[in-house]
Design a protein that fits this description.
Number of strands: 0
Number of helices: 20
Structural class: mainly alpha
Distance between the termini: 32 Å
Shape: globular
Order of helices and strands: HHHHHHHHHHHHHHHHHHHH
Strand content: under 5%
Radius of gyration: 23 Å
Helix content: over 70%
Largest sheet: none
Length: 422
Amino acid sequence: MIGIRVALWSNAQMIRILCLLLFFATNVAAKDVQSEISRALHGYTTYSESVEILARLEKQMPYENALDDAQVMAFKCWFSNPSTPNGISEYKQFLETAKPVIHQANNLNLIQDLAVCEANQEYTQGNYQTALEHLKPIINTPSLNEITSSKKLSIIALAHIVLNRIQLAKGNYQEAFDSAKTAYQLFEKAGNDYEKALALKEIADIHIALYNYELAIEQLQRAKLALTKFNEQEQYKVTDQLAYAYEEKGDLIKAVELYESIKQDVRRFESDNGYAYILIKLTELNIKLNSLSQAESYLTELNTLSVTDSWILTLYNFTKSEWYLATAQLQAALSFHEKITAGQQQSWPKSLKERYLNLTSQLAAATGDTSLQIASQQQLIALIKDKQQAIANNTLISARLNFNYEQQILEISRLEHESKLQ
């Protein structure tokens, strides 16, 4: 479920769903609706295949059974992308159509499924309190230990995943961890191996936010192993996250190796925007490693793409400015720096603000602008001091999140049991 229900590759919300062979008749009978949707939600179809499933299911509405119409509407919600004004408008129109259909079917699971999707869409827009209101009735489900329905358990687990993301965004690390851990355990009880593996990525995100990259890498490696029986798309997504963890840790060579390993898969499955992201990362890291000829080869390929995503364009401008500075082409470096400065800096994460101040300081030094150099360096020092204090505090917090140890005990027990059976 979560695979198709979460933000994906670039800034725009994407859907985590992966692949087996697409296999269905030209006309989908009503009795096949649930099985087709289930295949997508359990990681057995690529994104494009899932979009095709949705299109075929929608085309044949209305079905004889109102429950099938409701299932299609609940499924469609996770394809909404309220990251732009048009996307928000389309999403609101969808809800006006979907809610009556789903409520008419009078199926509590589908009603709650839609509520969790709404919570996730509100979360992606930064409306945390509204998202929490959607989640509360599901999170507070009574007699949780008595629930045996796999579908019901997965919906509650999904709600905890969204709650985890909200808490992480608010800096409530312990609460985020508790929610992610609960989700993992519920997915495990539900027998949902796909979502259970994806929950490990959520836990890794918490450790990355807490600057504990070793624990993050360990969780991501386990997630990658668990996802091997699903599809290539999920493999490169977890590898991308793993590369980022190594990059933040400071192991740039390993990060380059991992980004390079998924380059071809990204080209096959993603748009120019998604592929541009990988090329930008490879260029940036090679500039840092002073491998300028290698960086230039990635830039050459990057210049052949049609990039439209505003966030990718921001990263592109950063990388171009850094490249021209590294190759002593000062005017070109300044030109791209001006494009960066004109951007939406208030929405940048701290890591990008630090990168901007560092670049500004270097360019000011190269042009002899002493006042700008001093001002940017003072801001940079303040930012780094805050980061150092956060690292000291948050690494201690991360060390106390002992899911890692508990998970190892469970894995050892499972392996010992399998060994005895063999």
